[in-house]
Each structure stands twice: as C-alpha cells, then as structure tokens.
Amino acid sequence: MDLPSSSRSVKGGKKMPVLVTSMKSGYEGQPVGVTHHFTAPGMEVQGLSISIDEGASVSTDMVVSVQEQSEVEDSDVKDVKLIADRKKKSRVYLQRFRKSWKELPEFEGWLSEGNASDKAFCIACNKELVAGKSELLKHANCKRHKRRYSDMQPNISVPIEISNAIAEPELSHTQRIIDLRSDTGTRPSKAMKDFMYDAVVGDDAFQEDPTVTALERKVAALLEKEAALYVPSGTMANLICVLAHCWGRGSEVIVGDESHLHQWAQGGIAQVGGVHHRTVKNLPDGTFSLSELRTLTRDNSPFYPVTTLVCIENTHNLKGGKALPLEWLDELGEMCHDLNLPLHMDGARLMNASVALGTNPSRLVSSCDSVTLCLNKGLGAPMGSLVVGTKDFIARALSIRKVLGGSLHQVGMMAAAGIFALDHVVPRLTWDHSHARAIAQSVSEVHSSAVTVELKGVQTNVVLLQCDNIRVNAKKLCQRLESVPDREYEDLGEKIAVLMMPISDSVVRCMTYCDINKDDVIAVSKKLKYVIQEYDNMMYLEYKINV
After folding, report:
1. For 57, phi and psi rounded to 5 degrees?
2. Is 488:530 a contact under the CB 8 Å cutoff?
3. Looking at the predicted structure, is the pLDDT value of residue 543 above 60?
4. Is the pLDDT of residue 488 over 60?
5. Which of 39, 116, 150, 196 is the most exposed place for a label (fewest CB within 10 A)?
6. Among candidates 445, 431, 266, 259, which has minimal Cα distance to 352?
7. 153 falls in which pLDDT band (50, 70, 90)?
C-alpha cells in the first residue's frame, strides 16, 4: 500500500501523524507488520501509524510495504490475498490422516499410516507423504509411483483373511507373509480348480450327486469300510459320529485330555447331544494308558453316566502331529472289543499318519468302528470331510447330518476337490513333513534356551516351539515373528512376516502344508534364527549388567 505522493514540511514541536490513506483491495485483515524503506529524523513507526515531529522536513513521497506474519518466508510477496489463499489451502491439505482413506480403491494395497497424524506412507515408494487426499491422489497418479506399484504389487498384497492378524504399523514394512498357523491355510491349485469346474453335479440331499457318490465310495474303499458320508467339516463329522454311537441318553465318552474333540470342539457333544466327557491323560506320543482306560470305564449305575464310546485322534494335533503307534492301536482295539465299547478315530490328518508310518491308511483304522477323514486341511480341498463306517452306521449318520443342517445339494464341485486331493496331494505329503523337519532343525541349530524344539518329536507337518516364559512367552513370540523392524530388514535384507499360533502360554504351533515351498522354508528358518538370537542376546545383556 502507498501513501499519497505529495511533499510537505511540518514546523513546530508537535508530532503530526501521517496516516495510511489507502490499502490494496482484497486485504482481509490478517496480522501484518510494517517495514519502512526510509530513514528520517523525528519519525516513529507504530503499527500502521507513522508520527513525524513537528518542524521536521520530511517528504511524504514514500512507500510502506505490508507483509503477513506467517511461516511463509517470502519477502517478495506483495499480494496479501495470495498469501491468505495459500494458507487456507494448506489448512485443507494438512488435515489429520483418516484410516478410511486406506480402504478407498485408489489407495488400496499401497497406502499406510505415517509417523505423524498428518502423514501417510507409500509402501511402494517407501516414502512419507502429506496426508491430504488431494496430495495422495496426485502421488497415486504420478508415473513413477505407478511403475513402482506395478513392480511390487505381487509382494505387498495381503490376503484378506489374515490382514487383521498383523499389526498395522508393521504392514508398511511387510512385503512377504508366510502363514504357518494351520494347514487349513491351503488354497486350491489351478489344476484342482479345473477338475472342480468339470465335475458333474446333482442334488446330494437325495443322494443323487454322482461326484459325491464317487468320493464316498473311493474313501470307503481306501479305508476298507462298508460306506462313507460326505459332510461339510471335520467338527461336524466328529459330532455326527459321537451322536450316532451314543444314541441313548446318559451316555459317556472317554477322550484324551488334549484331544481336539475335548479341547477345540466347544463341547459340542455335550451341548448338542447331552453326552458326557470323561478324559484320560494323553501321553507325549498322543496315546494314553490302557490300564487307566480300563479303570475309567463304567457300566450301568444309578449314580453315573454309562461309558458308551472311546475316541482317539490320529495324528495328535496338540502333541505335535504324532502318528499313533500301530502296536498301541492294536492293543486298544482288543481292549475295546473285550469291554464291548466301540472305538472312534478322529482322523483329521489320517493321511499324514499313513505317510509318516509308511503304511496303508486302512491298516491304521482296522480296529476302529468309525473314522473321520478331513479333506480341507493339508490335502488342500476348500471344504469337506468324510464319515466312514458300516452301512447301518452311515444310515444313522445321514439322519443326524440332516438335523444338524449339513444336508448339501449341488456339492459335486467340492467333492471333486476331495477326489483330486486324494489322487494328487496325498503322494506329496512327505514334502510337508520334510519342510516341518527343516524348520525344526533350524531352531535346534541355534542351541537356545529361550526357544527350543523336540527335534525327534517332529514326525509329520507339525512343529511345536517351547518358550521359556522368562524372556518370551508364546504370544509375544508370535507377535515378534509377525513384525519386521528396520534393524531386521537391514541385517537380513528381506522383509518377512511369519504367522504362527500360540496354543498355550509356552507353546507355539507351526504347521506346513502344500502351499509352502522350499523358498518359504528357507525364509522362515532365517527369520526364526534371527528372532531367537535376539532373545538369547537379551538374557546375555541382563546377565552382564547384573554382574
């Protein structure tokens, strides 16, 4: 803004004010400071008022520049309105980062929260960004980002079903996720999908689906039993078998205290069937004492439920995937025959046991009156289990399946996946066992006291890691394996998140399956060694400090 350009002289001792008479249009009253580009005796400047001592001869042909007091350090800016507009836009673009923006289609797969509330992070470009939506869109549309995102997309994609299992701050580091929580993490291969697509289907509720019928006959012949029934899941299969055996009220089932049927099935046989659990202690190899079993057996009494069924699990999940010894199975079968008790086998991983022992699966179930076989675990089928037994038993099981809501219709495509799995996946189960053994071997080689493994106990596709509960417990170990700190990436040169499952305070379960390959095993082994050595070094430092 300018003062009038006329010249005048002021005489006397009074101070005469020189007032600003005009302002550039568009000024919005922002805080301003005054800079005068002249010096003259007797002048004082305060705000926008300039006072001149009376009697001083000062030219009023002067320019007073007004500059907004902001963080923008631009002494050449003369247009105050332009500065105000910039500040207004800055307030819009620098608004707080919103989590919902990560879910927008244009930001999907590469955007994560940054280190500050007004920052975001580009996983593809490894770069902090201003978190305003306009700025993010501008970055998303630039050619360099598109090229990097296209190159890295296979590595940074996160399966929907496990995205919530990883802490969000760690996702920005993670490029590769290896899921070893369970062998239910399999996905149908392309060959399996093609086989499913070509399947002939019918209404299985009327037992008219030819592919389901073919699967049932195949499994019955495989286990050398009279008949089989296709059901949606292993949990339902075991429940159907118990209910079919314990048809009368007041029945009791003897199960291992660490069996899946007792620990992980929500007490379904009691909830749905009113069947009482009675447990016998599982031994380290998954078996239990036969003499203890005999003492637990109860006959008709007005004070107790009646022992009606004995259940076993093969392989035994919580005992590390142990395959039950053949001699023990034969002895158990003889005892159950003498006690007039039917024997049921939860064969969720029966084919793993068969491969581990090098024998036909029918040999493992020869003493059993009923068997379940899962197709949706390490065999890679998306769903389905089989109930196997006599024809009369299967007829009763069919009735129970109906009341439990497991009657299926055009399900031949899923049954086809089971047929494919038995023909093509079972022959390569030995690879899964080798991979599990390699992971266990890598842990053993560290010779740690914080995390240990029983190498001889790894028989199939299950590895149990024992935590000392001093430096680390099971939950913390799993959380650490999921994360990828910067230091780890610098040391290993890879960004790998490994998912495992804590099954107790001190035990972590790791399971291999057909989707895990050799490269995955190498990466998991390297990660495990690094993390376990961290905990060992932690104890060493504490010891040195205390000493």
Report:
1. -100, 105
2. yes
3. no
4. yes
5. 39
6. 431
7. low
Q: Which pLDDT belongs to residue 546?
A: 42
pLDDT given for residue 169 in this prediction:
39
From the list 161, 214, 267, the residue with the least C-alpha distance to 422 is 214
Tokens of 345: 């086998």
Nearest to 284 by CA among 456, 117, 63: 456
pLDDT tier for residue 186 given thresholds of 50, 70 and 90 = very high
- Tracing tokens 């019928």 back to the chain, one arrives at 213
How far apart, in whole angstroms, are the C-alpha atoms of residue 453 and residue 181?
Answer: 17
Per residue, the 3-state secondary structure of 53-66, as one string, reads ECCCEECCCCEEEE
Q: Are the C-beta atoms of 188 and 380 separated by less than 8 Å?
A: yes
Bridge partners, 181 (sequence order) = none
Is pLDDT of 542 > 90?
no
The residue among 56, 33, 52 whose CA lies nearest residue 44 is 52
Give the integer Cα–Cα distance in Å for 475 and 97: 31
Chain centroid, CA 400 distance in Å: 34
Structural domains of the chain sorted by starting position, each given as residue range(s) with its CATH number in brackets? 8-81 (no CATH), 94-157 (no CATH), 176-185+429-546 (3.90.1150.10), 210-408 (3.40.640.10)
Tell me the sheet residues that pair with 254: 278, 310
Residue environment code for 142-158, b if the CB has 16+ CB neighbours within 10 A, otherwise e: eeebeebbeebeeebeb
The set of residues, in sequence order, having a beta carbon less than 8 Å from that of 160 and lying 6+ positions away, is none
In 3D space, the residue among 242, 247, 272 whose CA is nearest the CA of residue 346 turns out to be 242
What local confidence, expressed as pLDDT, does residue 171 receive?
40
Structure token pair of residue 178: 């290896």
d(CA 393, CA 407): 17
Selection from 183, 177, 144, 184 nearest residue 162 by Cα: 177
In this structure, the strands spanning 251-256 and 276-280 are parallel
Task: Supply the pLDDT for residue 123.
Answer: 80
Burial of 490 (0-12, 13-18, 19+ CB in 10 A): exposed
**pLDDT exceeds cutoff 70 at 300:** yes
Query: How confident is the prediction for the chain on average, in pLDDT?
Result: 82
pTM of the model: 0.69
Exposure string for 95-127, b = 16+ CB within 10 A, e = fewer? eebeeebbeeeebeebbbbbeeeeebbbbbbee
Provide the H-helix boundaries in 94-226.
133-141, 143-156, 168-171, 190-197, 210-223
Q: What pLDDT is recorded for position 330?
A: 97
One-character DSSP codes across 145-164: HHHHHHHHHHHH---GGGGG
Q: Residue 56: its pLDDT value, please? A: 52
